[in-house]
Amino acid sequence: MKISTKGRYALRMMLDLAIHRDSGYVALKDIAKRQGVSKKYLEQIVPLLNGADYLQTNRGYQGGYMLSKPASSYTVGDILRTTEGGIAPVACLEQEPNRCERSEDCITLELWKGLYKVMTDYLDGITLQDLIDRQNESAYDNYSI
Fold it and tell me: pTM value?
């Protein structure tokens, strides 16, 4: 599976909101500027994240967005499934039960199931807070006294 620009930008947006959570509501133009992303592109991603109740919205002069929950509540897998529509390596695994007419005789099905499990376990095991903590640890490790 290849993660699209939409999925990557959504993850960057959510991380930006998590990092700046103490600033209150954050304007899309500020996220766009910090992330080097088009504001118009972020405007297309917001409805997906809003639909999943990931964001709180405030309109008006002090308007913007903030996370609905703590950063530790959002997994990378959840964000990518929300924006990508799924993360299965093959389409037949997106259906439960698998309705593929070849599933009974598919010699590669177990391979795809294994890959899907590894991907899901990995992406669902990392939260926004984990990514922030890793970045902070890396910055600390590179700091010399």
Answer: 0.88
How far from 126 is each of 7, 54, 77, 119, CA to CA, in Å?
A: 15, 16, 8, 11
List, for residues 3-35, the tens digit of each pLDDT value.
999 999 999 999 999 999 999 999 999 999 999
Residues whose CB falls within 8 Å of the CB of residue 9, separated by 6 or more in sequence, listed in order: 35, 37, 41, 42, 45
Burial class (CB in 10 A: 0-12, 13-18, 19+), 101: exposed
Angular region, 79: left φ>0, alpha ψ -120 to 50, beta rest:
alpha
pLDDT at 105 over 90: no
Report the alpha-carbon distance of residue 77 to residue 45 in Å, rounded: 16
Quote the pLDDT of residue 139: 65
Classified as helix, coil or strand, 107 is coil
Instruction: Find out whether 128 and 71 touch, Cβ atoms under 8 Å.
Output: yes
Domains present along the chain, CATH in parentheses = 5-141 (1.10.10.10)
Closest CA to 10 of 31, 30, 29: 31
